[in-house]
Specification:
142 residues, alpha/beta, 2 domains
């Protein structure tokens, strides 16, 4: 099922645009939840992954399913970035998002020295397709 992207009418109230945006977003997420088995998502604690994960979990809850959410955590021993207003570990934000929706099962994953390039040959061997989002590959190598 593809989301309806046909042109819309001009709304009289700002809230109507919010409602329409949510309906379109819900439709887009629902279109990606077609699965025979479980559903997984990456959950970094940022706005985009949080919106997708919480929306997917809310929709899956209606069918009694759980969303497996993978969150990358800092590798122990790496230096901490001390820039002002710079958060270099989103694990707490991701945990808050996972706590918000009871059917999110959060899994914390550390790269343990791996880089996406270390995993690329293995992923290609299994999938025989181009790799999507290679930055996430270290999670799948564990």
């Amino acid at each position: 099922m593809r989301p309806d992207i046909s042109p819309r009418e001009v709304h009289a109230r700002a809230r109507d645009y919010v409602d329409e945006a949510r309906a379109l977003f819900d439709s887009a997420v629902a279109a990606r939840l077609r699965a025979r088995g479980g559903v997984i998502a990456t959950l970094s604690g940022g706005l985009d992954s949080t919106l997708v994960a919480v929306t997917a979990a809310r929709q899956l809850a209606a069918t009694g399913k759980v969303l497996e959410a993978f969150t990358a955590i800092r590798q122990p021993g790496l230096p901490v970035n001390d820039k002002v207003q710079w958060e270099n570990d989103d694990a707490a934000w991701a945990a808050a998002a996972a706590d918000f929706q009871p059917n999110i099962r959060q899994r914390l994953v550390s790269p343990e020295g791996l880089t996406p390039l270390d995993i690329l040959p293995l992923v290609h061997a299994f999938s025989n397709t181009p790799v999507h989002n290679p930055a996430s590959l270290v999670w799948h190598g564990r």
